[in-house]
Design brief:
This protein is of the alpha+beta class and about 170 residues long. The chain is built from 5 helices and 4 strands; from the N terminus they run ααββαββαα. The protein has a 4-stranded antiparallel β-sheet.
Length: about 170
């Protein structure tokens, strides 16, 4: 594969702060949420920002080898209340016991309708480049499955967010 370096953006002292001009944007998530759940309160922005940070630390965007997708956050059973907090605030997903022996539970989303919501939530709102790269693989797989099932796709936003003291 040939990579044309001249087409890649170059960070210079003059444009190094351009990344900071963009902040978290949940408009696509909120728009779809209002359509799917017109009688439910929307998760507030501070919760969504917290969830993104928590997910970047403890969450997983899983592409299953047989073609499925899973969004998972696992925690010790002693921290089960964190997973229930996520479930309550998002209004969708499941909390299940992952391993009785190791005393772990997981918040999980596997259905396409709610995976789309996760894709809309995280798309363009990730902070870490490496986590964003893994998310973009997840999103590409979501879009492939969505196209096969004649569902809406989510256009990828490649950029990451640089949080400020006002939104972190």
């Amino acid at each position: 594969m040939n990579l044309v370096l001249s087409s890649l953006p170059l960070i210079t002292p003059q444009n190094q702060n351009l990344c900071c001009l963009r902040s978290f944007d949940f408009s696509a998530f909120y728009k779809k949420f209002e359509i799917l759940y017109p009688n439910h309160p929307k998760p507030n922005q501070s919760f969504l920002i917290w969830l993104i940070g928590f997910t970047e630390g403890d969450g997983s965007f899983i592409v299953v080898t047989r073609g499925g997708l899973q969004f998972v956050i696992s925690q010790s059973t002693t921290d089960l209340q964190v997973l229930l907090y996520i479930l309550k605030n998002l209004g969708f997903g499941q909390v299940i016991q992952q391993c009785k022996k190791n005393k772990t539970h997981r918040f999980i989303i596997q259905d396409m309708k709610h995976l789309m919501m996760i894709c809309l939530l995280f798309n363009g709102n990730m902070v870490f480049f490496t986590r964003n790269a893994k998310f973009l693989i997840f999103l590409a797989t979501y879009n492939l499955i969505a196209l096969q099932k004649n569902l809406d796709i989510v256009v990828p936003i490649m950029d990451t967010i640089l949080p400020t003291l006002n939104d972190s």
